[in-house]
Amino acid sequence: MYKNIRLCISLFPKNIGHICRENHLIPVFHLGRRKNSQHSKERNEANFSEIPIERIRNFSIIAHVDHGKSTLADRLLEFTGAIKSGQNQILDKLQVERERGITVKAQTASLLYKYNGEDYLLNLIDTPGHVDFSNEVSRSLSACQGVILLVDANDGVQAQTVANFYLAFGNDLVIIPVLNKIDLKNAEPERVCNQLQTLFDINPNDVLKISAKLGLGIDDVLKRIVTNLPSPVADKNANFRGLLFDSSYDRYRGALSLIYVQDGSISIGDNIASFHSKKEYEVKTLSLLRPDEVPVDKLVAGQIGLLGCNMRSSKEAHIGDTIYHKNTSVEPLSGFHPSKPMVFAGIYPMDQSQHVNIRSAIEKLTLNDSAVSVEVDTSPALGQGWRLGFLGLLHLEVFTQRLQQEYSMDPIITAPSVTYKIKLKPTKQNMKDDSNVILINNPANFPDHLQIEECFEPMIIGTIITPDKYLGQIISLCMERRGVQKSANNIDNERVILQYELPLCEVVLDFHDALKTISSGYASFDYEDNGYQSSNLVKLAILLNGKLIDELSGIAHITKAQTIGRRMVLKLKEMIPRQLIHIAIQATVNGKVVARENIKPFRKDVTAKLYGGDVTRRMKLLAQQAAGKKKMRMIANISLPRETFIDVLKK
Question: Is 130 part of any known ligand binding site?
Fold first, then answer.
């Protein structure tokens, strides 16, 4: 029998596993491999647990979109032996990330690096670069002592580079500047170094120059991480405190929490409690991410690891919460400010029979993406659903795509809107100013104009970095969107940085696309919240034969209400099917019609059966038809197919 086994190995080395399964010899071939892998795992656990805090480094990679964060993370994993060479996008685990080529979810990996004969534990967090996922960046920085600021040597400093720099600078983190893609023929390292010096006062001699794609200069980055970044400020002997800064959902283990151990240590079997929910749990699993899970028995101060303790829902795994040992007294960690949704959209099931499945899918996704806010909503046309808040339009698109890909859901997504602040006129029953202010993100809840004293809309400060040859077109675009220029400065001889105050509602839909179109893709855009500003807002109501349709109504600035209303009624005229009665589509503002279109009814030829006789017979039949249509128009409801609502709201 053993001769036959050796013969199979020599003849078919690539198909050993297949041959073994057919001959039921799996235990014979895999016994030694399992034993070796178990020894290596035990050796890795021992190495991790024995590394002192002085040799631990926690850091993130921050950059603008497509500047090479994921590629650099791949090379760092490769150079430290965590993965095999030639693998790409290891930390981009979601299907949507691989399809779009962007990072939307921060991922963690623990690396072992030998420097001067000693092992160092490097906890790497790869962060997204798009402005819509800045919440992922801010959460990741809470568990770090330093960052790698990655800049493309070809494109130079972009808008999100500026935003991420000041985010790290505001958290007092050590910043390691790195220029990537120096192997490109159009790379201009000196020009980009001068930009870094002009904007951030970074010495050009301190900037590392690498090519993450070719692996050039990666060893220098690792050495700079070890020598320049500080070790965590932690105490192994204190009572256990851990910061819960991310979470995910596992089908079999429930909610998994990514924690940064600030003080003490945590072991499997410990009883822990949460400051936020006040609930108690037993630690079931602990693991390090390398980048795949490596089970460990213990996590100590300064480490970042994955905790499983039978949490069931997103309400229990509260981002920013402090985890501590039961029956011990500790101070909660400061955590971080929760993100504030900027864009709201309604999500409804195609069929109400799918309501339970979509609700379950949304709960699991919000556990993985804590920046999404969820409120129950109801629509007469679309049924029961939810009003979800997102950080931006790309955030909304990615969330919807994940619902489709990961949970096979195909919901109806309504047109996105923002949150407005309305101050109502005081009444005898309620004279307090504070209680007269309400927040509106659904046009159906907009009060009557006679009750409104003042309206406020959310504003942003937008940062645009562009080549100077597109400056005129970009200024025109910002003025068209009701923008007010705050500043304009030259970065170098070719690039300009602009700051505009813009209404958020003018930005969230298509501003980014329009900016990329007029600048041939060279301009970059980033924005931050700037509070509320008084504005002349009105409800743009859509009426069908005088009946208000709240699902199709919207909120607009008075100067753009007529243009938007005209576009809306033309769209409805194309989509609403003809019926037996005349349909008048009207867009109104404060009771005044600003746009109107008519859909003519089907006309039955009631005189077709006549073949002669007096003309009075024809006139009588036509008069009867006109009277019947008039009566029908008085008592009939317009029957709008559900598909019409879906088509209009999606667009």
Answer: yes
* Residue 129 marked in a binding site: yes
- 383 among annotated binding-site residues: no
Q: Which of 199-203, 324-328, 429-433, 598-602 has the lowest mean pLDDT?
A: 429-433
Dihedral angle at the C-alpha atoms of 200, 204, 206, 207, nearest 10 degrees?
90
**Residue 64 marked as a ligand binder:** yes
Q: How many residues does the chain have?
A: 651
Q: Is 126 annotated as a binding residue?
A: yes
CA–CA dist 69, 362 (Å, integer): 29
d(CA 70, CA 78) in angstroms, rounded, equals: 12
| Ligand-binding site membership of 561 (annotated) | no
Residue 127 marked as a ligand binder: yes
Residue 69 marked ligand-binding: yes
Stretch (H or E) spanning 369 = none
419 is in an annotated binding site: no
Q: Is 70 annotated as a binding residue?
A: yes
Q: Of 67, 76, 72, 174, which Cα lies nearest the Cα of 122?
A: 76
Segment 288-299 shows an average pLDDT of: 86
Contact 73, 124 (CB under 8 A): yes
Can you list the domains of the chain with their CATH numbers? 2-49 (no CATH), 51-228 (3.40.50.300), 241-325 (2.40.30.10), 343-413 (3.30.70.870), 420-535 (3.30.70.240), 538-650 (3.30.70.2570)
pLDDT digits (tens, 9 = 90+) for 400-413: 888 888 888 878 78
Q: For residue 314, say whether it is annotated as part of any ligand binding site.
A: no
65 assigned binding-site residue: yes
180 marked as binding residue: yes
H or E element at residue 56: strand 56-63
Q: What is the pTM of this model?
A: 0.72
pLDDT tens digits for range 628-649: 766 555 444 555 655 565 566 5
**Tens digits of residue pLDDT in 516-558:** 888 888 888 888 888 899 999 999 988 888 888 777 788 889 9
Whose structure tokens read 């602009």? 498
d(Cα 616, Cα 539) in Å, to the nearest integer? Answer: 50
